[in-house]
Fold this protein.
Amino acid sequence: MTCHFIIYNVKLGQCIGILPHDNRDFAMMVDCGHDDDFHPIDDFGQYLPEASNKKPSLRTLVLTNYDHDHFSGLPNLYDSVEIKGILRPKNLSMKEIRGLKSQSTKALDTLEEISKTYTTPIDNYTPPFIRKVFSLTQEELKNAGIPIATNHLSQMVFVKYGENTICIPGDIENRSWELMLAKTDLQAWLRQTNILIASHHGRENGYHEDIFDYCKPCCIILSDKSIVHETQKNMTAMYSSHVIGNGVFYTPATGNAALRKTLTTRNDGHILITIPLTGSPSFKAHT
């Protein structure tokens, strides 16, 4: 039995498909960013079971952040599949979210629609993986003198399958990491994390050295576009310095497997992680 994690290349965005091989009824997508004409659901949908309306059935959509690069593909996703449940940060109301945005978009309109529709948890939800989420409150930010912003209010997601745990921290920034790292239960989840998605697409303001007092990853993954900002430079090397051992073997679409400490969607494209119930995960290009 295995669980597949597909880190889709959506440039400066995020979309991760999670597919338990032994029970695809519990397929989950974390964020739904897209890139130009590419919508990850066009690929991920082929692996999903069929709903009664003949559409693919997605058990859960998890949103980590209310910036458009994390949910720009929501209108297409909402039209393309039957989404059974949505888990989104509850620390901002739709009125507050719209107040933080400069203009209205179809993605925001769809977000507002689902906020009215998906209001109760699904009964009998027992997936083959363990999921845990953390987020800060506006009050916590105010008490620490941190401005109310979507990045600081990101929902951090841990997914544990068998002996392996992946951490998806959204766009948490350095100052909000300080508050997160003070939570003892979050520390415990970081201690068992061996695959880390770099916060805020690997940008400098998403990095906090103290993360690695608890987290000892075998690999760190950056979902990012080509380097065009100063805050992107040197971050791959910075994250590599925190990886335990020599990294993991990664098999590209062409060529032979090689040891890697960090993987980036800008260089590696779509990344497939296959996690067994016991033993180490494998990493290769998703084609």
Q: What stands out?
A: The longest helix spans residues 106-117.
